[in-house]
From TrEMBL:
Protein name: Reverse transcriptase domain-containing protein
Originating organism: Glycine soja (Wild soybean)
Length: 116
């Protein structure tokens, strides 16, 4: 119960508006599993599967909660009036600036499109 009321909200704080990379999702998932194993008194050396520990504790994967929170936030933003600040910022295009080599940065729109 402490995990759901204190730990998980602290981990998920602000994730609804992140443009989350899979690398971030992996790190958050690893941190969650370390805490769950610690709560159960188990270590990785005990070779217990993550699904078994989650089932024992009774929690869903934190990545699913991140997606759920992101879609909930997107729904709130979409219901706002068109002239509200949040909607205007969401509709703005990125400035054309000089950027480094490689793939363009992932935007929150792309993340939400993937979640839908």
């Amino acid at each position: 119960k402490f995990y759901r009321t204190a730990v998980r909200p602290a981990i998920l704080y602000g994730t609804e508006c992140w443009a989350v990379k899979s690398q971030h999702e992996n790190k958050v998932g690893v941190a969650e599993m370390r805490m769950l194993r610690w709560m159960c008194g188990k270590t990785r050396q005990d070779k217990i599967r993550n699904e078994a520990i989650r089932e024992r504790v009774g929690v869903a994967p934190i990545v699913e909660k991140m997606v759920e929170n992101r879609l909930r936030w997107f729904g709130h933003v979409e219901r706002r009036p068109v002239d509200s600040v949040v909607r205007r910022v969401d509709q703005m295009e990125r400035r054309q600036t000089i950027r480094g080599r490689g793939r363009p940065k992932k935007t929150i729109r792309e993340v939400i499109k993937k979640d839908l």
